[in-house]
Amino acid sequence: MSSRRSDLGPPRPHVYSPPVAPTPFQLPAPRPLVGLFDLPDGPGPAPVVVLCCGFKGFVEWGFFPPLAALFAERGLAAVRFNYGDSGMALGDEKVTDLEAFRRQTMSGELADLLAVLGALPELAPGRLDLSRVALFGHSRGGAVALLAAARPEHRDTLRALVTWSAVSRFDRLDADELRRWRETGTWTVVNARTGQELPVGLELLRDLETHREELDPRLAASRRRAPWLIVHGDRDETVPLAEGEELAAAAAPPCELLRIEGADHTFGAKTPFAGPNPLLIAAMNATQTWLLRWLR
After folding, report:
1. Which of 231, 225, 55, 83 is nearest to 151 (CA)?
2. Over the Cα atoms of the chain, what is R_g?
3. Is 204 within the bounds of a domain?
4. Domain that residue 280 falls in
5. Closest to 6 in 3D by CA, of 273, 199, 181, 263
6. Is 45 within a domain?
7. Within a domain: residue 19?
8. pTM above threshold 0.90
9. Is the distance from CB of 89 to CB of 83 less than 8 angstroms?
10. Distance separating alpha carbons of residues 239 and 21, to the nearest angstrom
């Protein structure tokens, strides 16, 4: 495992331009999924990057549209999707199905990602190079992408992995919070952006306890083989940099940890997206460089 800081020099120009409207898609199984894909210009099959959102994230949040547009601009097809338990349809700005959100599990979100990977041959026939597939994930989605990369069916076929602000563990509540969750049957999360109170049921807690080893990002880090770039801000208020360092320490090679000085959990991005900033540009530049290195 190697490590470096974000001394990338001047940001590259034209990091973001208004995207051409992406193409929506819907998958029926194992549970209904909706998403978007951005294709590069040109008729030939393109390498593919599948993007995974974090907790309370969605395909149209913050940096996801410009990041997908950047990938397409660089000749990579970008596929992003909402988990079946996100409680959000395309175009939603807040959770509209609270019962779906309540039923969320990590096993379910991993199954959703595996379903998207399995559906790539039918998603854009003739336009995707299925021998060159990479994963990207932010926050909890970074851990989901990592778990998929460690799966036996993908361990030797994925060509690259990039995570931003990824969690090293899913059990993040203290003993008192866990006790209240068990007693009431609900863990309530307040979305700071929308003010919504979002309920999470006991299914998530039981899933983590039942599948502890299968859902351990640190164990997955040692098992995955895809070249992995870990990007983490040293001012991440949600997932401390120590978790990125923990994943890097557990990782089998090849793996590189990029610490971005001054960056928070979302590298300064918010919804609605207000344009790039130097911290986000550093993360995007490092990401596109890594993906182009291993996908071309």
Report:
1. 225
2. 18
3. no
4. 2-172+214-295
5. 263
6. yes
7. yes
8. yes
9. no
10. 32
Residue 192 inside a domain? The answer is no
Query: Are the CB atoms for 105 and 85 separated by under 8 Å?
Result: yes
CATH assignment of the domain containing 228: 3.40.50.1820
Which residues, 6+ apart, have CB-to-CB distance to 278 below 8 Å? 11
Dihedral Cα 222, 57, 89, 288, nearest 10 deg: -70
Q: How many domains does one find in the chain?
A: 1
Structure tokens at 267: 């590298």
Q: What's the pLDDT score for residue 194?
A: 94
Q: What is the pLDDT of residues 84-111, one digit of tens each?
A: 999 999 999 999 999 999 999 999 999 9
User: Do residues 296 and 48 touch, judged by C-beta distance below 8 A?
Assistant: no
Average pLDDT over residues 268-293: 97
Tokens of 80: 């992003």
Q: Which residues pair with 262 in a beta bridge?
A: none
Which residue do the tokens 């990002």 mark?
217
How many Cβ atoms sit within 10 Å of the Cβ of residue 91?
A: 10
For the beta carbon of residue 167, count every other beta carbon within 10 angstroms: 26
Q: What is the mean pLDDT of residues 155-161?
A: 97
State the sign of the Cα–Cα–Cα–Cα dihedral 48, 84, 21, 118. Answer: positive
Does the pLDDT of residue 1 top 80, yes or no? no
* Distance of alpha carbon 269 from alpha carbon 217, whole angstroms: 25
Q: Which of 168, 197, 203, 193 is nearest to 84 (CA)?
A: 203
Average pLDDT of the chain, as a whole number: 94
